[in-house]
Amino acid sequence: MAKKLKQIAIYGKGGIGKSTTTSNISAALAEAGYKVMQFGADPKADSTNTLRGGEYIPSVLDLLAERRRVDAYEAIFEGFGGIYCVEAGGPQPGVGCAGRGIITAVELLKQQRVFEELDLDIVIYDVLGDVVCGGFAVPVREGIAEHVFTVSSSDFMAIYAANNLFRGIERFSNSGGALLGGIIANSINTDFQREIIDDFAARTDTPIVQYVPRSLTVTQAELSGRTTIEAAPQSAQADVYRQLARRIAEHTDSKVPTPLNPTQLREWSARWADHLVAAEQAEAERSRQVA
Amino acid sequence: MAILALKSRPTEISPDADKSGPIELVRYVCAIGAMQSAAAIPRVVPITHCGPGCADKQYMNLAFYNGFQGSGYGGGPVVPSTNASQREVIFGGADRLRELIESTQLVLDADLFVVLTGCIPDLVGDDVGSVVRDFQKKGVPIVYAETGGFRGNNFTGHEAVTRAIIEQYVGPWDGVREQGLVNVWSLLPYQNTFWRGDLEEIKRLLEGIGLKVNVLFGPDSAGLSEWRDIPHAQFNLVLSPWLGLSTATLLEERVHQPFLHIPVVPIGARQSSEFLRQVAEFAGLPSERVEAFIKSEETRYYNYIDGFTDFYSEYWWGLPAKFAVVGDSAYNLALTKFLVTQLGLIPAKQIVTEDPPVEHRDAIRAEFRNIDHDVSVEIDFIEDSYQIHQSIRNADFGHKPPIIFGTTWERDLVKEMKGSLVEVGFPASYEVVLSRSYVGYRGALSLLERIYSTVVSHSA
């Protein structure tokens, strides 16, 4: 009996740190001895760059554009710690259908039974943005990822995107699709940032898997084309990612998310906005009094 | 740092076999044309999830203007469709499909529904699987196949439908094997104008040597009970150059079933007897019964041929010597083999038109290079009729008018060349075909009648 392959998908608003977080999770998992594949589902095809010294690799769709038939192994590249890196790729900005590209790339690997042949423990899909169309929902359909994690900061736009993702997952959960594993709270450095994300998590009954602070170590590592795990293995930040990776590896029970409806979300954010404004005014008042 | 893929690409990438561009006078239909493959199974009804007009076009082309075969129990105009339009493109068509499946169950009586998708849902990424699985969980006999046009033609679609039924309906193997039971994977229903009669003859031959046959498609199939019985068969017989091989491989993986691949569909006594002996050996059948059957078939066959030889040897001034075949690899190979080895005709041009998958092309070429011990044929893979006709025009037919085995598309060409045309493939719009067959012992006799009736009536 083959071992059970664990497939997870990581979603979140663009620019929120999905690829950084995903690559560090992959790196930490590889370091812990797992056989990992990271599958970048983003037309920019840069999800796995920091696993390979910043180098770009040809994407599945680059190869398909050249030739109708592609051996999936031609699109798999080994990166840090033996991590198998694949980029789905996509059309140039403004043309074609990126969603169809994701479907095609995922199908190609499935059809050619790559996951079984490589004897993987974990596949992580790093998916662009939120579930904008059918194509970007493919990783959460039945038979692909079982667990979805969302990367979100305490910014309202990131939380909106997370809530949207919850709605997508809720929809697919009725038909055997992936379930929600939890929130990876990124760039959380202050108490009120933490309060906001905690409150959203509580309102949607979603666990926070890990708080990841914003750190210059990450930026330095990225600029050198590496993950924090590789560039600064002794750093505190690396340990945060290791802990996150361990939780994800041990994670077994995901659930149907309970997203806020649009009115609830609006009211929730308005309340927090009022709260923040009040806090800021109180702070300004205090500064004036001190002066 | 050099970044290397797990497998490197061949440095010399030969250009793709398909030169994209417009095709004049098509010789196959869209992948969703495989709705007629579903309809070819008794009491199976296809449901199409596609734009308006897609399903009708497949039906009219495949089943109407191609031998006027008719739609079958659940095919053609019976087929329910979502008629997806702008709304389904923007908002997704899953809900519309769900509604259609529910309504279909109320008005159509079928043993199995097969949902086939067209370009629209496959492009926008409708999760058709999840819709269909909901019905499967409720016990509705229904499967789905993704057959968007960009995935291939109706040959590809046929394989997708077959795979869907095996994976989603047939179920796992219970470990029981029935000796002497065979599943037959051969000609493409409806695309091949003569598939019904041909499958009947193939079944008759196999039963003649003592096998029990799951013929799976057509009026001679018992329908879904045969499909459910697939895993019990002793083996799969793939009787075609490539179509059906992926199905046999799937079954080999899934239920550990061996398969026998015979690329040449037999026409005439010589080929049919060789075919039966090959199958019998693979199946381990006792030779007495096999040889007795072959003997009785050959006796009958050669009795007719004996009569035919009077005509064939005396009418020498009017009969063509060189021939061309334009058609799918299965019939093209079968006809070429028969015409060369049993009638002594000379092949002038063989053009394979169904766009076979690249990985099978070398094997197809090899079969044609081995037509007889002293006859080797170089074939062309062409889909565009303008190029096909140019190629036929430029072929050397000697000083006699040629005989072309082709389709209705060759009508004008053959007039121009003052030759004869036997319509043997899609589209055959000047043939009405019911149970006529051109394969096996009996089909070969019908074929001879058709060929030489065409030739002798040429000057009438």
UniProtKB/TrEMBL annotation, chain A:
Its cofactor is [4Fe-4S] cluster. Binds 1 [4Fe-4S] cluster per dimer. The keyword Iron applies. Keywords: 4Fe-4S, ADP-ribosylation, ATP-binding, Iron, Iron-sulfur, Metal-binding, Nitrogen fixation, Nucleotide-binding, Oxidoreductase. The reversible ADP-ribosylation of Arg inactivates the nitrogenase reductase and regulates nitrogenase activity. The reversible ADP-ribosylation of Arg-100 inactivates the nitrogenase reductase and regulates nitrogenase activity. The modification ADP-ribosylarginine is found at residue 100. GO terms for molecular function: 4 iron, 4 sulfur cluster binding; ATP binding; metal ion binding; nitrogenase activity. It comes from the Bacteria. Its EC number is 1.18.6.1. It is an enzyme of class 1 (oxidoreductase). ATP binds at residues 12-19. PROSITE patterns: NIFH_FRXC_1, NIFH_FRXC_2, NIFH_FRXC_3. It catalyses: N2 + 8 reduced [2Fe-2S]-[ferredoxin] + 16 ATP + 16 H2O = H2 + 8 oxidized [2Fe-2S]-[ferredoxin] + 2 NH4(+) + 16 ADP + 16 phosphate + 6 H(+). Gene3D superfamilies: P-loop containing nucleotide triphosphate hydrolases. [4Fe-4S] cluster binds at residues 97, 133. Belongs to the NifH/BchL/ChlL family. The key enzymatic reactions in nitrogen fixation are catalyzed by the nitrogenase complex, which has 2 components: the iron protein and the molybdenum-iron protein. Homodimer. NCBIfam families: nifH. This is Nitrogenase iron protein. It comes from Rhodopseudomonas rhenobacensis.
From TrEMBL, chain B:
PANTHER family: LIGHT-INDEPENDENT PROTOCHLOROPHYLLIDE REDUCTASE SUBUNIT B. It comes from the Bacteria. It comes from Rhodopseudomonas rhenobacensis. Gene3D superfamilies: Nitrogenase molybdenum iron protein domain (3.40.50.1980). This is Nitrogenase molybdenum-iron protein beta chain. The keyword Oxidoreductase applies. It is an enzyme of class 1 (oxidoreductase). Its EC number is 1.18.6.1. SUPFAM superfamilies: Helical backbone' metal receptor. GO terms for molecular function: nitrogenase activity. Residues 31-455 form the Nitrogenase/oxidoreductase component domain. Keywords: Oxidoreductase.
